[in-house]
Design a protein that fits this description.
Residues about 60-75, about 330-385, about 430-435, about 465-475, about 485-500 and about 520-528 have low confidence and may be disordered. A hairpin with a 4-residue loop joins β19 (about 345-350) and β20 (about 355). α1 (about 5-20) packs across α2 and α2 packs across α4 (about 225-245). Helices cover about 30% and strands about 20% of the residues. It has a domain at about 1-50 and about 85-290 and about 300-330: HIT family, subunit A, CATH 3.30.428.70. With about 525 residues, it is an alpha+beta fold. A nine-stranded antiparallel beta sheet has the order 6-7-9-11-10-14-15-13-12. It has a three-stranded mixed beta sheet with strand order 2-3-18. Keywords: Membrane, Transmembrane, Transmembrane helix. One of its GO terms (biological process) is nucleotide metabolic process. GO terms for molecular function: ATP binding; ATP:ADP adenylyltransferase activity.
């Protein structure tokens, strides 16, 4: 596996090479700044996208297998562009998580509107409808950090679910370069003054539900395990808030919850989604909105669309595909409770459940929130906005718990061994061994002598004496192939013994005979 900084450093040259070879398509664009309610958005105009091949909308499901792929190739066969083997001009490098062992590929985006747009893709097929797991969060943050170390600034985004704006069902996280002050949502989050910096918060100026978490300023100095724990807990808290928001959406579509994830080196954001597309009232055109839109960066294909977006209003468009926020008021009881209560802390993990402290507000707070919403009840009695959504969330918690439980057990065992309170397991110390079977003497098998007999006295080796082929004076070494052809036991092959000597040797005891028998099998270490 390549070093992560080397991979990030090579992206500009690899991007240019893929562009020259025709393996990558770049669509030039212009950016127009647009200010609404003191928020500066970026609207990118790219007319060339009108000629980009249109792929059918993929179907997302948690039980997708790698045979359910995205679109057809020119020969009519379906294929997954994120499945190995990769296009060598789009494949930048590979990464491996040091704790879980999960492997990832870094690929250039085949259709790029923004230069140096690349993807972090799971090598093993995983559904784009599944939440981000701890190794994926760590690799995402590490890529952002590595880019900053070489003087580049990136941000990452992930589109999860049917209505998130994702274009491929194979799990992938996207990265694009950004200006020094970050995307618009990051500039807005940076202005927030937090009473409790280690709690989730919402941005009151936004017209839609958006849940954010501010990272500690020294996060890059965290050890690998500490980084994973913080990112996973932050993601879990935001996901819980997003699903809580979905619970109170009266017209939320059936199916698994959809949401967008945005990560920078300073914040993590999760935005719950209701619809994938927004239909402009003036023109009837459909705008596909993904995580970039909620980062404050919209994409249009024509000047007419650009003008229509400005007339409609970016805030209205984002609210149309997002959800109303019940946390927008600074006096929201739920928001105050979340900021004033302990954060979610995973205490222990098992294969069947995750036990946590501080998971969600108390019932009294939920009652206050209900009153704040005008007495509107949640449309579903479970944690998610639908039965499928609840099952997805529970499945993620179970997988999350299993992962950390295994890691916790491994750490506890290693600590006990180091302290002398436990002995290493036999399988940890056992050397690789191979079983070598020493074949029995053929002379014994053919009944020409007994075990313990002197094979050939000196006089029998005299000139002219018949020399048997198995004499120990010039016996050829027996190979493993030869030995495999010989019986493991000689009891069934023994016939009447024929003495090869006129003088019988002194008889040995049964113990000596057993020790001298060459029919025994030995376990010999593989290093011999």
């Amino acid at each position: 596996m390549e070093h992560i900084i080397d991979i990030v450093s090579s992206i500009p040259s690899r991007f240019g090479n893929a562009l020259k070879t025709g393996d990558l398509f770049f669509f030039p664009s212009t950016i127009e700044k647009h200010v609404e309610q003191e928020i500066q958005y970026e609207i990118r105009l790219c007319p060339a996208l009108q000629h980009k091949p249109v792929l059918p909308t993929p179907h997302f499901s948690d039980d997708l297998i790698d045979t359910e792929l995205t679109h057809e190739s020119p020969n009519g066969k379906k294929f997954d562009p994120f499945q190995p083997p990769y296009n060598k001009n789009l494949h930048v490098g590979d990464l491996r998580d040091e704790i879980s062992g999960e492997e990832f590929a870094i690929l250039l985006n085949k259709y790029s509107v923004v230069p140096l747009h690349f993807l972090l893709v799971t090598k093993e097929f995983k559904s784009q409808a599944s939440p981000l797991m701890p190794p994926e969060l760590v690799q995402t943050y590490t890529l952002l950090l590595s880019a900053r170390k070489i003087g580049k600034k990136l941000f990452a985004f992930y589109n999860c679910g049917d209505n998130s704006g994702a274009s491929q069902p194979h799990k992938h996280i996207q990265f694009i370069p950004v200006e020094d002050d970050g995307p618009p949502i990051e500039r807005l989050a940076r202005q927030a003054r937090l009473e409790f910096p280690d709690r989730p918060f919402s941005l009151e100026k936004l017209s839609y539900a958006s849940h954010s978490y501010r990272f500690p300023t020294n996060l890059e100095a965290y050890p690998r395990e500490g980084l994973e724990e913080l990112l996973a807990n932050a993601f879990l808290q935001l996901l819980d808030l997003a699903i809580s928001t979905i619970r109170h959406e009266p017209d939320y579509p059936a199916g698994t919850p959809s949401y967008n994830v945005i990560m920078t080196l300073e914040h993590l954001h999760i935005i719950p989604r209701r619809l994938e597309n927004y239909v402009l009232e003036d023109t009837g055109d459909k705008l596909n909105i993904n995580a970039l839109g909620f980062a404050g960066m919209l994409l249009v294909k024509s000047s007419e669309e650009l003008a229509a977006v400005k007339r409609e209003g970016v805030a209205k468009i984002l609210r149309g595909v997002g959800l109303a926020s019940s946390l927008s008021s600074s006096s929201s009881p739920l928001r105050m409770a979340l900021q004033g209560s302990p954060p979610i802390v995973l205490t222990h993990w098992t294969a069947s459940k995750v036990v946590a402290r501080g998971l969600g507000p108390p019932p009294s707070v939920l009652a206050s929130e209900k009153a704040l919403l005008g007495g509107k009840k949640a449309k579903t009695p479970i944690i998610a906005g639908s039965i499928c959504g609840g099952l997805v969330f529970i499945a993620w918690l179970i997988g999350f718990g299993i992962y950390f439980r295994k890691r916790y057990n491994r750490k506890q065992r290693n600590r006990a061994i180091a302290a002398g309170n436990a002995a290493p397991r036999e399988k940890d110390l056992e050397l690789a061994k191979e079983k070598i079977v020493i074949p029995p003497d053929p002379a014994i098998l053919l009944g020409q002598r007994k075990p313990g007999d002197i094979a050939f006295p000196e006089r029998e080796n005299a000139k002219g004496h018949h020399h048997l082929p198995w004499s120990h004076h010039d016996v050829a070494p027996v190979t493993s192939e030869d030995s495999s052809q010989l019986p493991a036991s000689s009891s069934s092959l023994r016939g009447p013994p024929t003495s090869l000597s006129k003088e019988s040797p002194p008889k040995k005891s049964a113990l000596e005979t057993k020790e001298s028998s060459i029919e025994d099998e030995m376990d010999v270490p593989a290093t011999l």
